[in-house]
Amino acid sequence: MLRGEERERSKDDAELVDKYEFFLAYKDEFYKHLLKKAVSKAELDTYAYKPNGYNPSNPKYVVAISTSNGTGSYPVALALDCEMCATSLGDEVTRVTVVDQKCSVVYDSLVWTEAPIIDYKTNKSGITEEMLLNGPTKQLSEVHDDLLNLIKSDTILIGHGVDNDLRVLKMHHDLLVDTSVEFRDTTEVSFVKRRSLKHLAYEYLHKVIQNSEGGHDSAEDAKTCIELLKVQFQIDALNRQRASSSISGPVRQRAMNTYAAVLLNGCSKRSERIN
Q1: Domain regions of the chain by residue span
Q2: Which CATH class is domain 34-230?
Q3: Inter-CA distances, 89 with 117, 168, 169, Å
């Protein structure tokens, strides 16, 4: 027979499962959550940083592909990150990585630049001449074909400064969530001030990224964007429950810890208690 404390815990756990059962379908809920935050490329441009001398008519900034011209549907959230090297034309993309909601890499390719590389920026890009030569490395036009097969007009594209990634990809997409905007510094007079992904990862996820001598890892950066938005989703959902339900504090806290692990499954080996 269960002791009083165990009976209470069992009752609480049953209440937890009942009240938070909607989280079992969190993939759909996560997409819906992001859909409310997603903006068009034009809207994102109001926050976006423009490189010196930026001119949309410049050939290196001309959009080559647009998901609005594609066919099919793929209503999921994907995170995108690019690594770039400096050429005589400016920064050009040399690696493209896409991860899904589980933080699994679904696309990863090295990319040939249009002009000769004059600075690999290895300490930031992680790209070396040897990597590109050993490959496999694709032409940007081939990467465009791959991305159009993967990213549809109803796909939510996530990134940190994702406008920069789209610019070097010469790609247009109109369903965007940018972590640099979602987690922007609102304490400054200029509320569009962006915080680095490295800083956000440490503050919200308690992990260190971009700390390798070999440079950044586009897969790690893309996964971190997903993790950040899942934590934001978790906090928003639990705040709604806190406001609308009479669930006891201990049960709510256990639910928070339990579903933190669910939401971050595949992204992080541990979940952190959020107060």
Answers
A1: 34-230
A2: alpha beta
A3: 9, 11, 14
